Amino acid sequence: MYFSNIIIGLLFSFSSFSLLANEESVTHDSTQAHVNVPATKEAESTKFDPGKLILHHIADEHEWHFFTVGHFHATLPLPCIVYTQSTGLQVFSSSNFKNEHHEEVPYNGFVLEHGKIHAENGEKVYDISITKNVASLLISAVLLLTIFIGIGKKYQDNPHRAPKGLQSMFEPIIIFVRDEIAKNNIGEKHYRRFMPYLLTIFFFIWFNNMLGLIPGGANVTGNIAVTLVLAIIAFIVTNFNGRSTYWTHIFAMPGVPKWMLIILTPVEIVGVFMKPFSLMVRLFANITAGHIILLSLVSLIFIFENAALGLAVVPFSLFMNVIELIVAFIQAFIFTMLVSNYIGSAVEEHHH
């Protein structure tokens, strides 16, 4: 996932030996006894914090951080758009919250704390900024529109010609979603009208999963707000297309004794809401867990400051990257499969 961090971590694991050796030589030098006390305190204050590193990479931010080498931070400032009742709407760059040492500083009555913008006077702030996740969502939307509008035009211009380029790459996946997901779960009669929606969520999740594996990429599908919106849309599409038989099986299941409905009907109603909830949590938890595992493996190099451990961690981290590539596709498949299953149960016709 973070190949640059892995390589840099390996290099730092080797360099840590020379730093430790220098510290030991200073410690044994009696003439430096009085200097060791503040140096020790400074070392403790700058001790590597793996939790901070992991949260920094999986959380949303007001700037796009790519990598850090020494005191150089490769970042892309993003626009901050905030509104307060006293000052009105303000638009400014997130770079104003950082000084020349890349330390957070107040700006124009606002402070940036833990990725959130607050007013210094305690006033409520309405933040509609273009954050890292929002910027990544816009990039994925542009990619989706560019790729599939281009593919659609090629099909319109040459409907009987063999696919080429991106057509040949995405056509098997589109057919897979149609035949193995939509048709199998929704049925021949109704699957066509849900194909645009199913293809959209499949490729949206897959593209954002893949973008999140790029070094410095945003953790979009690992953001619970994004998966919540996807779950709400699935809930609306499923229940707004529910037929009478679907609602009958929820509120008055045929063939069930009346006294059993007192127990089963509340369970079925809860199930209507638990289905989208499970979609939300499953996608969020699986993607976030993958990021945390990889970052935890990289953090071991800095925690133990051991070059031998770095040689063991890096190959395993690369192996986990390959697993994450597979998981990126599998999670898009599972989410689309479950949504199509829910839609299929909602539009299923009564069988005599």
Characterize the overall form.
Answer: globular
The portion of residues forming beta strands comes to 5-15%
Low-pLDDT segments, ≥5 res:
1-45
Radius of gyration based on Cα positions: 26 Å
The number of helical elements comes to 10
Largest beta sheet: what is the strand line-up?
Answer: 4-3-7
Fraction of helical residues: 55-70%
Provide structural commentary:
It is built from 10 helices and 7 strands. A hairpin with a 2-residue loop joins strand 1 (63-69) and strand 2 (72-77). The strands form 3 sheets. Strands 4-3-7 form a 3-stranded antiparallel beta sheet, with no helix packed on it. The protein has a two-stranded antiparallel sheet with strand order 1-2. Helix content is 65%, strand content 10%. Helix 3 (50-58) packs across helix 9 (258-304), helix 5 packs across helix 6 (191-211) and helix 5 (166-186) crosses helix 10. It has 352 residues and is mainly alpha-helical. It has helices at residues 3-28, 33-45, 50-58, 132-157, 166-186, 191-211, 224-240, 244-251, 258-304, 307-347, and strands spanning 63-69, 72-77, 79-84, 88-93, 110-113, 116-119, 126-127.
